[in-house]
Amino acid sequence: MPASKKNSELSELFIAFEELEDPRSSINRLHPLMSVVSIAVLAVLCGADGPTSIRGWAVARQQFLERFLEPPNGLPSRDVFRRVLCGLQPAAFQRCFNAWIEVMGAAIAAQSTTEDSESEKRHLAIDGKTLKGSRNNSKALGPLHLVSVWMSAKGITLAQVPTDAKSNEITAIPQVLELIDVRGAVITIDAMGAQVGIVKAITERGGDVVVCLKGNQGNLHKAVSEFVEKQLDNDFEGLVHETLHESSNKKRHGRQESRTYIQFEIPEDFPLEEKWVGLKSFGVVVRETSSADKHTVERSFYISSLPVGIAQFSKSIRSHWGIENTCHWSLDVTWREDSLRTMERRMAENLAWIRRFSLSLLKQIPDKHSVAMRRRMCGWSEEYLTQVLIKSGT
Asked: Which among 122, 143, 126 has a CA at the least distance from the CA of 134?
């Protein structure tokens, strides 16, 4: 590939950063903001985790960077990276992500019709994650907690809102919903999202919800669980319902596991309060685990605005687990997010955005390597890094 063509394709990826508002003073501003942010993203993609290591990576890869960024005054110093990461408005990264998704094309923004049908809607999972290393005892600040939206099929974080504690997820979820288009999507949330206002906000905007139900909605949880227990004995006779059973033929860690999904239409005589607008069905997942000396049965209950359709219901629940198993697990294991000691709040949030951006970039690569190996290969091979950027930017 000719160098000029390659450089043009690479530059497409970073167009999204052109609209960022520079937080620095205009006096003696030597390094364009787009270059500073682009280098930070590339460095984190290749293994860096803060201003010092970002600067170190940039020095080691200066010739590579000059091929397409052409910094007018050499490479930014560590202090420049630090000032930018401490000064940038985190909400600006949200807009950059939206611009990047547009560059990626309509297939990323809203699953193409070849992938979706009326019964197979795109799935968005909402969940929170705590950055344990961001605790700042000197300022009496606990660890930063982030509530984010994960597009399961594409492996992309669409939005992120910070809170100071996990208990504040109830107020953060409506905020993060305002940042995304929920029309035609199924939104899954854990029990913290089982709130009347949250369900109403999603359904009124044209989305559907599948929400886990636990003790925070004590009366509803008790009514649903007692109703299900009675119906399990007569196999939901007389109710519109569907059932799906999944079992593994192989033992995992010495255990045999199976899951049974049951979704049923809310009966007319069920004592559901009128304030729960939009709900159409309840569901239960029965998980059975057997080992050499133990057998356990667990039941999880769900409320949903979806009509009865077990394929969509079960897929939504399985996809929700992906935000933990794919996104959060990768951030903790591959990016070591939990162990990073970034106590400055705005820098912590901006670096969290960059980590999620780099994860999203790596998730778009169709090779057979794991995400961890892709990140290592970006650090080892400029050719591989170039291919990642080209494929993610077009």
From this structure: 143
Query: Which of the 8 DSSP states describes residue 134?
Result: G
Residue 70 and residue 195 share a domain: no
Q: Is residue 140 part of a domain?
A: yes
Residue 152: strand, helix, or coil:
coil
Number of structural domains (the chain) is 2
For residue 29, what are its two tokens?
């501003």
As a whole number of Å, the CA-based R_g of the chain is 23
Residue bearing tokens 């995400």: 371
* Pair (242, 150) in one structural domain: yes
> Rounded distance, CA 177 to CA 195, Å?
14
Instruction: Give me 205's structure tokens.
Output: 């905007």
- Which letter does DSSP use for residue 21 in this model? P
Domain contains 27: yes
Helix, strand or coil, per DSSP, at residue 254: coil
Structure-block tokens of residue 355: 């980590």
Co-location of 45 and 117 in the same domain: no
What's the pLDDT tens digit per position in 170-188? 889 999 999 888 999 999 9
Top-confidence range, 134-138, 169-173, 200-204, 249-253: 200-204
pTM: 0.85
